[in-house]
User: Fold this.
Amino acid sequence: MSVFDIYIQQIVNGLILGSFYALIALGYSMVYGIIKMLNFAHGDIYMFGAFGSWAVFYFFANRAGAEWACLLFGVLAAMCLCAALGFLIQRVAYRPLFDAPRLSLMIVAIGVSLVLENAIMMVTNGDSVYLNLGINMTAGFRIGHVSVKWIQLVLFLIAVVVMVGLTLLINYTKWGQAMRAVSEDMNTCRLMGINANKVIALTFIIGSVLAAIAGTMNGVYYGSLKYDMGYMMGIKAFTAAVIGGIGSIPGAMLGGILLGVLEALGTQICGSAWKDVFAFGLLILMLVFKPNGIFGLSETERM
Amino acid sequence: MEKLLEVEQVETCYGKVKALKGISFSVEEGQIVALLGSNGAGKSTSLKTISGITPASSGTVRFMGEDITRLSAHKIAARGLAHIPEGRCIFKNMTIRENLLLGAFTVSSDAEKKRAMDYVFDLFPILGERRKQLAGTLSGGEQQMLAIGRGLMAHPKMVMLDELSMGLAPIIVQQLAGVIRKLNEAGLTVLLVEQNAKMALALADYSYILSTGSIVLEGKSAELQHNSDVIKAYLGGDRK
Assistant:
């Protein structure tokens, strides 16, 4: 295996990690685009999604024996759970503060994050839980010296399909257009008869559903879950959103994939201890040299 | 004539600052009414209060006999009262077509939307030619046309236009004034807010003059036009 092959292999691995980041970054970016708020509880919604699907696997796995059906049930259950959770959080914790300074909202988000983490910590006694679906994790194929596992391919394709679906939803449906419009100018949208609160709720629901999908995928891929898994993932996804240009949907996708790949390559070069240094170093460079991100919009006014 | 819009003793505050100090006025069906005044007189606030963006702290607003003072902005819009805001506020990162479709958000039938869009393209052919272009690429006058077109998409009974003439060349203002007159002749009731008194008085049937949050003068536009001293006093000396 040549050095070149090793890097290609790391890019393949990085794409998987990057697709998790991208799915979570989308939720950050969409919420920021709509109400200019950093939802620090978003990583914990992802964690809830992972535990939600785990609970379903656990319940069904011993009875049904059909792993792929289990997976489907699990991810659907996690999506419903997170949709409800996302809606509830914005309704109960955030909406009363929409007119307050953004700092108050951010502090509430940190509070919500702590509540969610501690709830799962209580249930699991702070231990990791393990997940074995019985899917063959090592089976795959080789292209030259580079090995690709089936599970990697499946998860990556799911992420791509979800992101294409989201893009279509945002660009071509009435409510998707309303979401884009609200992120440009909320009050004008209200003058068009658009219920802005409904659009905000919808944004939280969609972001949470994406986080649930990422959570399930992560659980399946790594096989272990812990109550604090959303913390670092959330910060990484936030980094990805900033790299891509926060508020931008293609930016979150590209930023996530890019971060995943660069992290994998960085790990290869400097060792895994330097993984996070790579991610946050990139964030700092981005903030210094291109603070609006790759797809960030610089607002221009024309009179 | 039936009163379409009635504003009674409305007060609106921004924090502790009272921007409207109990104003009352009304708009009859089929009329063009103008609210005139200099910067900071409370013209835009009046419109924002009527459309529910900055709700009144006291007083009542009635539209078609219904009390809409406490309704949310999106519900007021759905009742057929369109507010075309100051500075156009078009969605610059969306296409002209998408902007217009958002104007018809409350319309559920696709055929209705298509008909409304054809009507707008008929009114402003330039928008039809550029329907797939991003709205941010339009000139100021075209953006104002788009804002008007978007406001018409849901078949409103009445439109409120905030500073139609702001930042536009006189020839464009004239053209837009012609469109407003045409729309009015087709049955649309119009409430204009303007600093450009000359244009507004020429267009409106009836006018009110606002100064620091109160209505200080009202009358038929034709009569106010000749009362140049008063207009000078309230609207600044450079306008006749």
